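Quick illustration, no need to memorize.
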Amino acid sequence: MAGNDVLRIDEIRLQHFRCFEDAEFRLAPQFTLVVGDNASGKTALLRALVLGVGVCLADVPDADVPRMAYEDVRYRLHEVPGGAAFLEHATGADVDCVGQVYGVQSSWGNRIGVGTDDSVQVNGRTARGHTAGTPVRYTPELGFGTGDANLAGRPDELEMPVVVHYATGRLWERTVADGDAGVGPLPIGGRTQGYNGWPKAAASGDLLVRWWQRQALIAFHDSRMPPSVEAVKSAIATCVRGCTDARFDPRSDDIVFMLEDGLRQPFWMLSDGYRNMVAMAADIAIRASLLNPHLGSEAAAKTPGIVLIDEIDLHLHPKWQRTVVEDLRRTFPLVQFVATTHSPFIIQTMRPNEIIRLPDDSAPIDYSPGSVDDAIREVMGVEDHDWPPRKREMAKQAAELLRVLRKRDGITAEDEQLVTERLDELLSLYSSDPAYCAMLQVEAEAFRLRSQAGATR
């Protein structure tokens, strides 16, 4: 299967879903970056994509399948005669996807009606009863098998796509030992364990250390390192700038990273930003290795799939923000990424037709920012960003006062009263800026001299 045609979402339509009344979005095949103000719908769009991807996994053994919830249905304001108004849910919500599934152009959906069970639809066929626990069967075109497929028994016949969503709490998600998200250190049950916890995955350091501990034991027993470790090490070295190698150190019971400057750093001593990227890259690679063991050390580079990341810039210094997208592309070239951000440094690195601006755009815009200023002004819509708001307000109030202070003729009593009131107010408000206060005081003194001179004529 060429490219990422194994699983890719090209279009998604949301109806009565969270903040979206009726919206359609087209996604780029490799990387789509979603930007917008707070509460513009970025996380809601990722939630819809999680539900859309989940439909494709509903018949996969051991895969977690998220269900559309009552809270996903859009609220609307209902007004009644007499001026009364109240909020009520819409009658239901729909998430519909169009894309490629094992090279077949497919359409599928996930919907819920208020007061009814949720349902899914694949290539025009509806299956209900998911809420009640009835197994959902899909047409073979969906590609993951139809109940009787023994995925673990035919590893060379089927490439399984990696699917994972990282929410904003990914660095602090509880590990599998606590009964929460993440790839477990002891995967029992075959390849599909790579889908464990994918709807809200943990980029967890504890989880990664536990996984590497087990691989070290396997290597000791088999006298060779498992290929999955090489896949993870390759992903980390490719994705994490400055890291040349990684290995498990039984003396410290931790992973030790070799850096370009010659330092050896245990995982627990890395910054939050470093640990976040290391753990996320490793988690994707571990999942790829579990899903496609026949790919060996090349699992990260050759596994297709969909990865969703909320606030991709989380904990990253601007230097790393400017490289993280290209690092992920290079490390996982067959994966379709959809990410959100508030960072102009990440926006600046995107290629044409890879940025969706909410709430205005339904498709990636044909625009590639040339500078951070372009990203801030033209993509994020922030004007006058050269000065912070306080400085802008200082300049505005000074300009208003200076128009009066610099009058040469026709100074009135009202002007004198305004100067007295506004000058005292501004000197008190901006007393921490002596140059600003001195400028106003000099101008005010000159104003008073001109006023006195005019009064004596």
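Confidence is low (pLDDT under 50) at residues 123-143, 145-155, 175-187.
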